[in-house]
Input
Amino acid sequence: MVSENRQRKYTLGLALSGGGAKGFAHLGVFKKLEEEGLIPDVIAGTSAGALMGALFADGYKPEEIKELFTGREFSEFAQLQLPKSGLFDSMRFRLFLKRHLRANTFEELKIPLIVVATDLDNGESHLFKSGSIVDAVTASCSIPIIFNPVVIDGIHYVDGGLFRNFPVSVIRNECEFVIGVNVSPLIPQKYKKTIFHIAERSYHYMFRANTLEDRELCDVLIEAEEFGQYKTFDLENVNQISEIGYDRASLVFANIMNSAGNKPIKEFITKGMPENTSLEKPA
Output
């Protein structure tokens, strides 16, 4: 809940979970935030959340980000290789980021960004706040076995979701109010018994397990079972996934405003949440 002590560094923080292509739901949330006149003061993202968060922090509009991915195929971002440290090389993904990011470093972004990756050598979570955005985001998105680790300053980094797929705790103490978007609910579905799909499924279980505490740290939590209907590397349903994010954010915001006299949600964040206001946190 919002602290009565208004001395924290940021007013509004936005935490974005990993989840592969399900991360396109973040774009729908961005759209809703813009409609409400809400621009986060800081963004924390893991994996797909780091990718979407980096583009948003770089000044891209939600529709512009959708255009970057619509009509593309997975092969445009990753190249199959003889397995050594990963099934796919991420060089094409790096080139995509270099081509489209306007900022080269974190310091150049319009909104402060924190990217979560995993230090594979030392077995711990690592936060990138400065330096190369391309290196940090590529590392955060590099699912082990599927992609090569990313070497930064001699350290091997992989997907941040191994330890912290939903990085609410990263910004909780610095923000008066945190909106969290978790796009990785795990719902039962059939999957192929291949090394690729078994690895994907295994990481889903791991990611879900380490999000439980962070879900409780949100002031507003946006998530929906519908996110789980899509595959990790599904680039065929960018618009549909984004719309689910928008619809869910709209519903959550509407429920909050209805419980507090239909005042704009921006007022809650800038002036504090009225007592007895119900904040939606789906089970």
Summary: The longest helix spans residues 238-258. The first strand starts at residue 10 and ends at 16. The chain has eleven helices and eleven strands. Confidence is low (pLDDT under 50) at residues 1-5.
